[in-house]
Amino acid sequence: MKTNDIILQTVTKFTLFVIILFSIHLFFAGHYYPGGGFIGGLMTSGAIVLLLLAFDIKTVKMILPVDYLKVVAVGLLFAIGTGAGALFFDKPFLTHAYTYAYLPLLGKTSLHTAVLFDTGVFLVVIGVTMTIIQTIGESE
Amino acid sequence: MNNLIILPILIPLITGVVLIFFTKNIMAQRWISAISALLTIIASFMLAHQVYRNGIQTMDLSNWEAPYGITLVSDMLSALLVLTTSIIAFAALFYSFKSIGEARERFFYYPVVNFLIVGVNGAFTTGDIFNLFVFFEVMLMSSYVLIVLGGTKIQLRESIKYILVNVISSALFVIAVAYLYSVVGTLNMAHISVRLSEIGSAGIITVIAVLFLIVFGLKGAIFPLYFWLPGSYYAPPAPVMALFGALLTKVGVYSITRTYTLFFYHDVGYTHQLLQTLAVMTIIAGVIGALAYTDIKKIIIYNIIVAVGVILFGVSILTPESLTGSIFYLIHDMNIKATLFLLIGIIIVITGTSDLEKISGLINRYPALGWTFFIATAALAGIPPLSGFAGKLMVVRSGFETENYIGAFVVLMSSLLVLFSVMRIFIRGFWGTPRAYKNEERAPVKWLLVAPAILTVFAVLYGFGTEAIYPVISTAAETLANPEIYINAVLKE
């Protein structure tokens, strides 16, 4: 019997963006407020899981044609690259650099390489969570 | 400041990540991991050279000074262990190319091996007790994957046991670190040592010392915590077994050595006496196992336990000579266990069985394999010019000097019984009437023999070059015997 999920699917379409916006907010707030790459990544994968619940694996793969294992690898490259970048400046591994810059629209903003590291964490968490869920979901 | 120290960790880490992109291209995976393993050997050799020339090398990660950030510390001991690890990793990888099989290679075998090396090299190099925990987990998670990869029934069963034991011991590790942190308020190992010597010998510190012994004893398989090891190491294929047998338990042994020489040297009467008793029991338990089985894998697995006991017996005596002996024996044992596992891997490939009753007469068809195995077993037992001799001699001599007659006697007897247990493989398996085996024709024996043969050459050179290596090893032992050298290098006082 095929049930009609129209309400769930419609609500998902709206909620999805709210969740993703919130996760991005958490991600960028991480330096000054509670949050960061880990919780941000978990929330984003939470949004994708909601998509998986409302639709099915095939549809979600069509919407987001991503190999999540590659996402993990790219995330790790981000994190390692940020750390190893310090080696080129003759500083110890993982030494971060920061600067204050005047960006259009945002005004005076602190730019910190820790964000790049956090991006790595963010991607790894999304990749790992989604790989686990998809693998379990697909196996018979 | 010295970035060389991070390279043995960084190179395999980057390689492991890059290999994820090439999972379907097996040739690329092999080439990349072989080249990176070579680079790791070169980097760790340069590191060891630098440590020998300029004393202990430290590196404050993130440029935060010593007690506040994570410090990587490479003293002679850890530099030597990192070098040994890199060589063994290269040998095991080279062996894997022809033996591990495409099915495993497609499913992240090479990335995971690289992550295992990251964990082991990191655990040897770190100077922060919680970072040590993290590297333990990196190493253990890779080993969970390696033990289950392939998905045969025995692997699934044994991996459940292995994971269960290690999860429990990791939880205990966290608890032990939490206790220690609540007493001393720092995680940097040099700083912990300073704080502990300010406190002196309080009862709680002895409790924590014993808790650490339980934790690392579970990882390093000492009596009575070795129960998981024979089953778990039996399951995976030969190159994985070689990596496990050579590296994983030795990280536990190294951690016991480090904590018992750097932290807990105040109430030696209790803690080191306990360590000594357990070490002697470990030797006895291992020898009994090695004699009891007629399965070649089981025999070598129980020999790991014997070696763990011998090394820790040397550590528990805590004289410069016994520590030198222990380090000598530790490096020899990593090398020779990898060699033996790779060699019995070849025997299993040829005969299709690990049951000694079903093997005989291999020497007629495979003389090179036979004599390599013979030399490796002689080195394992410690026949004089070979590599196992000097370490054991120093351990036994300092055992007698400090009037630990029973322990020293047990170590001596264990040599004999270890020799007997492995000679049995040689006599029954290689001598006797030749038999025909099913898979014989297809076995790439010559190719597989390269890696263990090179390791055997190392064992021989290590034995003959004892005189040349002695100053290096005794530098390592000196740091262990005088924690001040380590502390001053890290805290730069």
UniProtKB/TrEMBL annotation, chain A:
Main location: membrane
Domain Na+/H+ antiporter MnhB subunit-related protein: from-to ranges: 7-131
UniProt keyword list: Cell membrane, Membrane, Transmembrane, Transmembrane helix
A GO term from the CC aspect: plasma membrane
InterPro entries reported for this sequence: CPA3_antiporter_subunitB, MnhB
Membrane topology summary: Multi-pass membrane protein
Pfam families attached to this UniProt entry: MnhB
Transmembrane segments: 12-32, 38-56, 68-89, 109-133
Subcellular location per the Swiss-Prot or TrEMBL entry: Cell membrane
Superkingdom field: Bacteria
Annotated family: Belongs to the CPA3 antiporters (TC 2.A.63) subunit B family.
Protein name, entry field: Na(+)/H(+) antiporter subunit B
From TrEMBL, chain B:
Keywords: Antiport, Cell membrane, Membrane, Transmembrane, Transmembrane helix, Transport
Gene Ontology terms for molecular function: antiporter activity; NADH dehydrogenase (ubiquinone) activity
Chief subcellular location: membrane
Domain NADH:quinone oxidoreductase/Mrp antiporter transmembrane: 128-417
Protein's membrane topology: Multi-pass membrane protein
Transmembrane domains' residue ranges: 6-24, 31-52, 72-95, 107-124, 130-150, 162-182, 202-228, 240-261, 273-293, 300-318, 338-356, 368-386, 406-427, 447-465
Gene Ontology BP term (one): ATP synthesis coupled electron transport
Protein name listed in UniProt: Na(+) H(+) antiporter subunit D
Record has Signal as a keyword: no
InterPro entries in the record: CPA3_Na-H_Antiporter_D (IPR050586), NADH_UbQ_OxRdtase (IPR003918), ND/Mrp_TM (IPR001750)
Family in the record: Belongs to the CPA3 antiporters (TC 2.A.63) subunit D family.
GO terms under cellular component: plasma membrane
Compartments in which it is found: Cell membrane; Membrane
